[in-house]
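Two folds, back to back.
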Amino acid sequence: MGKIVLFLTLLSIFSCAVPIRTSDWFMGNAGAVPEYKAPQFSEYRILAVNNLLLGGYCDGRWIEWPELYPMMAETNDYKMYIDGHYQGTASGQKEMEHSAELYSGAEVHFPDFEYTSDEYHSIVAFSGEEDMEILSGSKITPENERYRQVLKEYLAGIGVKEEFRLTDVTKIDLDGDGQDEVFVQAYHDADMIGNSEGVLYMRKVMEGEVRSFVIPITEPTAAADHLKIEGFFDLNGDGTKELLISTMGIGYHSYLVYEFKNNGFTRVFENGGDH
């Protein structure tokens, strides 16, 4: 009698914790996991810059271009921006073949998007159903004495003795809290043949204090004086904008995307080509 009571008690507890239909019990479906449904390709948020595919975001994760490229079997509409200004939509298609050489990544072409110019312009394309835009932030002149002093104090604080030239100061509200962050960029000539070293970091007010966060640019062949902030956007939809940077060397451009998370910058995309 005691064994029967114990069995009924355990069955009652188990039934409360994990409700099971009678049909599931007899058909062997108890605890069945719903079948995974892969996202439709149109749900992917894809980023391309000057025809170079950088990567995308879908289903809670970043997807770099080598993984994303084989999925691109269909034509999608992209939102087109030139130097941060919206130009409308265009249909994109991947090239049939691409080189695996360094600084030669996969490309996306836009045959119905016509734009010609003798000057270099940043053409950014986003795909996906959500509204996307790329922001440039507001610029402060590098001649600003306050930020020259800010740079000097920052470099002294990290033990750098060389004289750096302030080249760019950009303000933007990165995380939507109503308060601007400030991106400070500088470089100095490291040797007699024109190689240079650069620094790019963000100043952010946290808990009443100004803190600095360096963006880890590690391109060994990139000239630091040709480092450029191309814009800011929120590709993963978490409310904090990512940072798009370009670096330029002899005969190529390299594009990098950084995410600010957990009090630091992490590179999520990179691609380069002879553009």
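---
second:
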Amino acid sequence: MVIFRSLALVSLLVFFSCNQKNKVETETISQIDSLALAQAQSGRQNFQVVAAEKESNTEAAKPNALYKDEEEIQNLIRQALSWSNSEKAITLLPALTDGKGAVYIGFDMSMHRSNLQSLRKTGIFSDEFIEDYDRIILTLNRKLKNKELDEWLVGELPTFSFANDVDPWCLCQDVPYDNPNPWAFVEVEALILKDNEGSFQWKWGKLGLNHSPNWKEFRYRFKVKKLNGQWKVSYLEGFDFEKSTK
């Protein structure tokens, strides 16, 4: 009986010892898991902070780059308009008359080629814009020679849309003020600006309270492309091929 009690006591001590060991191991594993989880969460939080900082810096850089591009494009269209109204501007319609000087029968191709060269020399316009202007003149020249258009009498408005009664550079007959130079104050509004291309519209700037609402509501659409790091005019609303050759 004594032996049985001794064996029972030994078994109880062994069972208690094992339970204590398992408990310690469980607590140790739990502590290790908690530490690993805390380190993982800390690392994830640090990564999120760094990622957020990078994203913030990228987003902050975007407005600065866009502002710089818009400023350059505004200066570009001001330069184009100022040039088109200077003594260096080209004669958009180098018309030829018949022998009697009564009817325009086409265009002077020699003067037209000179016009194309002048446009290139400005450094303001892309080849795309210059080619569109070239196509307009060549198409109208053909139509005049083939009598596909109504007779264009000398001293009268053209019988086609291009440069007819309005200046295609601004689609206007007048300017809101003469002094200061209105072309130096036009303002641009971005419609689309992505990578190296953009669609814009310009409006008259520096308008006073007494100016007509028509001046304030006027908008002129144009497009630009960045070529070799430089913005150039690639399209002007007043030089639209389809509309100009009707």
